[in-house]
Structures are given as C-alpha cells and as structure tokens.
Amino acid sequence: MTTAKCSFKECGCNIIAVDYSKLVYLPAAVLDDYQLMQSTKSTDVDVNTKGPNTPFTLVTDVWAFDNIGVSKDIPPSIAPETGSQYTFQYENDQWDLVKCVKYMICAECDRGPIGMVCQIMTPDKSEEQMVYMLSLQSVQV
Amino acid sequence: MSVARNSTASGGKNYDSIMKILLVGDSGVGKSCLLVRFVEDRFNPSFITTIGIDFKIKTVDINGKKVKLQLWDTAGQERFRTITTAYYRGAMGIILVYDVTDERTFNNIRQWFTTVTEHANDDAQLLLVGNKSDMDTRVVSREQGETLAAELGLPFVESSAKDDDNVNEIFFTLTKLIQDKIDANTVSTGNGKGGNININSSSAKSSSKSNCC
C-alpha cells in the first residue's frame, strides 16, 4: 500500500491508501475525455501507465479517502463529452463506464479534477453501481 | 446520504470515527470559503467552481485517534429556506457562521440557533464562528461575538478564510470538542474500549445539550 498524495509540492495532501492489487485500467483517452488533470510529476507511477491504458484506484465507499473534495452533480450543460464507451475489468467482471456524475478534487488546495464519481454497469445491465475512481496519473503515488 | 458505513473497498476500516459536520449561516458570510478556495489557476478550473462542491472529507488526528470529517455546506439553499431536516440528520457538529463586516448576519445567528436546535440531534456540538476577521470593514466586534456565544452557550472563534491554518483550526477545535464528548460518554456508559466508536449507537447520545463551561 502506498499513499496517493496531491501532486503539488506545496500541498502534498494525503488522499487515499492505494492498493496496487486492485487497480483498474482504462484507455488513456479517458483523461482527456473527462477533462481530468494530468500531473507531470507522477511519472514514477506503475509501469503499466505507459501504453494505451491509465490506472485508477477504485473504491465504492467515499470513507476510504483520507482527504477528498467531491463536487455536486455535473449539470448536463457542462457534462464531459465522452468520445466512446469505456470498458474495464474490476473484480473479475467487465464493467462499462456509463456516466461521470461528479468530480473529485484535492481537499486542501482544491486542484483537480483528480478523479470522478461514476455510474458503472455490467454489459448485460444486470448490475449497476456508483464508484469513486481516482486517476493515479492525476496525483503523486 | 448515510454517513455510517464502515467498510472500504480495500477491506477493514481505516479510521476510528467519522463525523458529519455542517456549515450554516446567511448567504454571503463565507461558509463556502471555509470549505473551498476560489483561487483560479490552470489546475483550479472554472468548471469545478461552476459545479460547486458537495462535501469534503478531511482526516484529523484527535487524541491519537484517526477521525474522518465529512464537511457540508448549505450552498445557497438557505436563501430559499429549504434546508430540510434531512440535511441536519446525523450531524454531530454544526458551525454557525456570521460575517463580522455585516451586522445583519450576526443578528440572524439567533434565528439560526433556533432552527438548528429544532432540527439537529440534541447532542450535536455547535460552534459560533465570526468570519472575515481580517477585513478592516468590521462592524461586529470580537466582544459582541463572545457575548452572544456566552448567552447561547456556544464556543466561539473568529476566522479568516484567507488563512488556511486558521480554517483547519476551526474544524480541529470542533472535532476535538465532539471527540472529547464521545470519549467521556463511552467511559460513562461503561462500554469504553478506547477503540471503535459506533456513531449510530443510541447509547452514545448525551442528554445534555449545554456546551457552557
């Protein structure tokens, strides 16, 4: 376990303990599509960052965070454009990222967005849940 | 929204207790500024400011315990008097904020106090905050704040949202008051294990409402 921190040196606020065995990977284009901040300082992230995918730490309970700011619901007028439907593996199941509902920012310096609160669904639409996804490329780990 | 969920995706919980804290007071007193900075730069994009912040989670260390705070701002709902009982439900701490440069907001604190005591849990810890104390256009003196606080039986601090340490100090002060109360209660009810605290436990409720010392 490592602690993800705000990537700005003058802040460095602790965000969450990252469990590397439970990361999820999405196509890197998700960062631009959802307008997530991309830190230049987190190049020492997992080597898996290189290539077409970008890592997220995914939790279902917001209390897993030590410090986090959560936005209100994103109004349709400024909802991020999603170029394509994103699919990822999480706990041995395949999930579709249906919608980005809220953004997450650093609780101390308010910089971000560093992650998002998303509605995800299994492809057969039998299961649906709301998850907190912190982009490891938007923080220091 | 439930505030009493203990599990995390990564397994066991990583805190000793959690507390829902609310900020109330008239519009414009700077409640939001106690929660969010409005400094805009490349990494503080305006679309986030436009959307607004729902809540923040902050972790503080109180007496060696890891306490997680969930901080909520009414965010303008007070203008329409639509703050519902649901908003107050489960709140363990409530910060009543006025603006030291606006006497009207100070005078309205009594009304807020009445509303809060009507809707909030009896054992919720209140704190009176005179905000914008750095402004030279102050019209409400520190003494006036202290007098009102003493009358209502509330602890009192002045704050400047421009000073981050000062803002964090407010949350820390309130949290410590709550944690001390929980610790005292845990001991008095005889189930003090010094560890986990179940905030849902009705036995943790105090019959005393007074914060006066």
From TrEMBL, chain A:
GO terms for biological process: post-Golgi vesicle-mediated transport; protein transport; small GTPase-mediated signal transduction. The keyword Protein transport applies. The keyword Protein transport applies. InterPro entries: Mss4, Mss4-like_sf, Mss4/transl-control_tumour. Keywords: Guanine-nucleotide releasing factor, Protein transport, Transport. One of its GO terms (cellular component) is membrane. One of its GO terms (molecular function) is guanyl-nucleotide exchange factor activity. SUPFAM superfamilies: Mss4-like (SSF51316). Coiled coil: none annotated. This is Protein DSS4. It comes from Huiozyma naganishii (strain ATCC MYA-139 / BCRC 22969 / CBS 8797 / KCTC 17520 / NBRC 10181 / NCYC 3082 / Yp74L-3) (Yeast).
Automatic annotation (TrEMBL), chain B:
The keyword Acyltransferase does not apply. Pfam families: Ras. GO terms for cellular component: incipient cellular bud site; mating projection tip; plasma membrane; transport vesicle membrane. Keywords: Cell membrane, Cytoplasmic vesicle, Exocytosis, GTP-binding, Lipoprotein, Membrane, Nucleotide-binding, Prenylation, Protein transport, Transport. GO terms for biological process: ascospore-type prospore assembly; autophagy; exocytosis; Golgi to plasma membrane transport; membrane addition at site of cytokinesis; protein transport; vesicle fusion. Residues 196-213 have a biased composition (Low complexity). Residues 189-213 are annotated as: Disordered. GO terms for molecular function: GTP binding; GTPase activity. It is found in: Cell membrane; Cytoplasmic vesicle, Secretory vesicle membrane. The keyword GTP-binding applies. SUPFAM superfamilies: P-loop containing nucleoside triphosphate hydrolases. It is a lipid-anchor. Involved in exocytosis. Maybe by regulating the binding and fusion of secretory vesicles with the cell surface. The GTP-bound form of SEC4 may interact with an effector, thereby stimulating its activity and leading to exocytotic fusion. SEC4 may be an upstream activator of the 19.5S SEC8/SEC15 particle. SEC4 probably interacts directly with SEC8; it could serve as the attachment site for the SEC8/SEC15 particle. Belongs to the small GTPase superfamily. Rab family. This is Ras-related protein SEC4. It comes from Huiozyma naganishii (strain ATCC MYA-139 / BCRC 22969 / CBS 8797 / KCTC 17520 / NBRC 10181 / NCYC 3082 / Yp74L-3).
